[in-house]
């Protein structure tokens, strides 16, 4: 992780692995049965009575979580393998993830003391309940990262465009300050295979992970 952190300009200690950090991921689904997650310190909660089992949705969330918390015992070691990671799955069996459900998941993380939250999701329309939850999170010192979307010539997605959120993109675009052009990141999917991924969702998780890594390494520091 020292190489990735150095590329991000953070100058982290070589042994920093997120110990003591509290990080949250709000995503659509998760397959937590992978060997590299067996010893990860995860707190997982489904915010729907009928969570989605769709392969694509589970793969999306699994990539996010393994990118952060994979233990390196089989295929992959994550950015903050020693951090405690709260995971909220918000998509139902039909693949729908209402913003109100994201707001509820965010409220759970804030109440649990999570310091950094990644939301690698987004939609075109704003939502009042989620906006209020984001304002509440910022008021309590929680730093939220969200994916801006993958189409350069369209508006930044919500909640990434919310004033309390740090929008992240994988391509330069208006209204986004955190950009990782051409980012190809090895991630572990629900099928147990490692492949190179790119897009604003992956970039969002990387940004949140590196921020959490720095925060855990230098207590009380801010970026």
Describe this structure in words.
- The protein is α/β, with parallel strands linked by helices and 223 residues long.
- It has a single domain, classed as Peptidase S8/S53 domain (Rossmann fold, 3-Layer(aba) Sandwich).
- The chain has helices spanning 2-7, 55-69, 99-111, 128-139, 200-217; strands at residues 22-27, 41-46, 84-89, 116-119, 143-147, 165-169, 178-179, 185-188, 194-197.
- Helix 4 (128-139) links the parallel strand 4 (116-119) and strand 5.
- Helix 2 runs parallel beside helix 5 (200-217) and helix 3 (99-111) packs parallel to helix 4.
- The longest helix is centred in the last third of the chain and has 18 residues, at 200-217.
- The chain is globular and about 40 Å long.
- The two termini are 19 Å apart.
- 51% of the residues are buried.
- The model is unreliable at 1-15 (pLDDT under 50).
Strands, helices and their partners?
Elements lengths: L1 H6 L14 E6 L13 E6 L8 H15 L14 E6 L9 H13 L4 E4 L8 H12 L3 E5 L17 E5 L8 E2 L5 E4 L5 E4 L2 H18 L6
Q: Flag low-confidence runs.
A: 1-15
Q: Could you tell me the number of beta strands? A: 9
- What is the CATH topology assignment? Rossmann fold
* Range of helix content: 25-40%
Describe the main β-sheet briefly.
7 strands, parallel
Indicate the CATH architecture: 3-Layer(aba) Sandwich
């Amino acid at each position: 992780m020292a190489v990735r952190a150095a590329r991000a300009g953070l100058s982290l200690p070589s042994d920093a692995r997120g110990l003591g950090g509290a990080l949250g991921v709000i995503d659509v689904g998760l397959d937590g049965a992978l060997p590299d997650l067996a010893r990860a310190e995860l707190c997982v909660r489904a915010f729907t009575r009928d969570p989605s089992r769709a392969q694509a949705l589970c793969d999306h969330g699994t990539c996010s979580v393994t990118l952060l918390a994979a233990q390196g015992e089989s295929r992959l070691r994550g950015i903050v393998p020693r951090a405690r990671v709260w995971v909220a799955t918000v998509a139902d069996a039909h693949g729908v993830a209402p913003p109100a459900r994201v707001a509820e998941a965010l409220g759970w993380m804030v109440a649990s003391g999570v310091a950094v939250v990644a939301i690698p999701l987004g939609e075109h329309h704003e939502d009042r309940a989620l906006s209020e939850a984001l304002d509440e999170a910022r008021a309590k010192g929680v730093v939220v990262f969200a994916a801006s979307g993958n189409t350069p010539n369209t508006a930044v997605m919500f909640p990434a465009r919310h004033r309390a959120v740090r929008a992240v993109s994988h391509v330069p675009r208006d209204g986004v300050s955190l950009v990782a052009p051409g980012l190809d990141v090895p991630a572990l999917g629900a099928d147990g295979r490692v492949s190179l991924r790119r897009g604003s969702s992956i970039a969002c998780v990387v940004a949140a992970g590196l921020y959490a890594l720095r925060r855990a390494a230098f207590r009380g520091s801010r970026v």
